[in-house]
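Minutes, structural biology subgroup

Action item carried over from last meeting: produce the structure token record for Cytochrome P450 CYP5313 (Phycomyces blakesleeanus). EB confirmed the sequence was re-checked against the source entry. Recorded below for completeness.
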Amino acid sequence: MNHIEAFSKYFIFTFPENINFTQVGKIAATGLKIQSAFFSPLGDIPGPFSKRFFEGSYFSKKKPGKRDYHNKYGHLVRIGPSKISVSDKDIIKQIMVTEDFEKSSIYSKMKGKDEWNTFNMIDKDTHKQRRRLVSSAFSIKYIKSLEPLFESVTESFVKRINLDTERTKEGDEFGVIDIWQLLRCLTLDVIGETAFGGTFNMLENDDHAVSRAIVKLTRGVEFVFYTSPLADKFVSNIISERTHSKEKRNDILQILVDTQHAKNTKDRMNSRQIASETGLFLIAGSETTSNTIGFALIEMCRNTDVLTELYAEIDKVDLDEGRILFHQEQIKNLPYLNAVIKETMRLNHVASMGLERMVTHDIIIKENIVVPKGTHVRCCLHVAQIHPDYWPEPLTFNPNRWLKNADPEPCTDAFFPFSLGSRNCIGKDFSMNEMRLVLATLIKNYEIKPISEQMKASEEKHHFLTLTIESGSFKVRMKPRAT
Ligand code: HEM
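Output recorded by EB:
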């Protein structure tokens, strides 16, 4: 049915004789809705009929992030009167790279009463300026200098696993470890060390005000980090101490605090802005990384041949005398380790709700469809990454597709785990280093075995802000490996 037929089928106009201004207003608004529903240039884009009039909330929990819509209607779906969802890799690139459209107003809802930060800023010039200031803290060279901080937290992680194994071990020496929870503690402590001037000691205490604030945020209870007074006070104190301290520490916080002395006033960040950025790193950099490592373990427990292959690769690399951790240089280019991480991110994209952009001038996309100014485009990177048009056996966890000489070669231009364009992930190298180090440490030091009920429970995923598992817990059996 084309839009004209749909229009005549669903609407019959009757004009009442005596109508007042309010009624005229209502009729005009209805007329506009009908006009946009059927006669907008988006009218020919398929989608559920109701979406021509209404759109659902972006933040509705547990929705499969438009996957079902794309399965049913194709790469292009109308999901609101002036909103479309896209899973076509070329259109995604056009929107996010070629046109480099600004983020949609959804992002300002994530700001709440806080200061704007690199993530939620919409204005392109302001974002460019802020991103430039923050980028120096995420350069490859600077991240390399943070290696000792990563290592000290990873050592605490190993100590904690050893403790829990010892505490829970059974006759076969295997203990039961809630690896999902410990990974959360680990990544929070890493951000604590690098962006807050010291660990939160999550690996020792399992708890901290900032951690509670994040749980509320990612479960949709509370939206803005700093609405939690405890977290707010904690962060303000840290920034104030560092600002007035004569000692410099090699970490991300120092780079932000140092901007306060920049010659050019435009390059200075005040303490509220610094607080907003560090709070952002905590949210953007902890669960994203811990969940990805957690999903890698879940995938490998489900595909034990992959686990065996990874043991074989890691065992070919020797640890330095007396160390339990690798140096980043030793593991950076391990093909299978990197393939496991990529394949995990392909199947478990963190942004499982899609990323929205606002069209600021009319454009033409594939097959001569005009997308008018004002349209919101939901770019479903997570759908493209598992689309059969781009990936053979798309839902199979197969790290081999990323290895050299794989046939067919992977469709790398439909793979965007860290997003793309000017708003791509600033913490990409930071998290890749962390994920490699943690996975290699686990494989080198422990035997890992799945627990069948846990495997079943881990199938239930939760989509809200980031992708996680519904239970918030994933236990495995672990035992230190004989050295
Ligand atoms: C596996 C780990 C990670 C993944 C998969 C990931 C993924 C992403 C994605 C998809 C975006 C785009 C979001 C959007 O446009 O709405 C993003 C943005 C961002 N990420 Fe990450 N991220 C990870 C780790 C980190 C870490 C460790 C940090 C910092 C410590 C970080 C900081 C940021 C920031 C600041 C942005 C906003 C960039 C901008 O708009 O200019 N991320 N990330």
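Discussion: Residues 10-15 have pLDDT under 50 and may be disordered.
Next step: EB to file the record with the rest of the batch.
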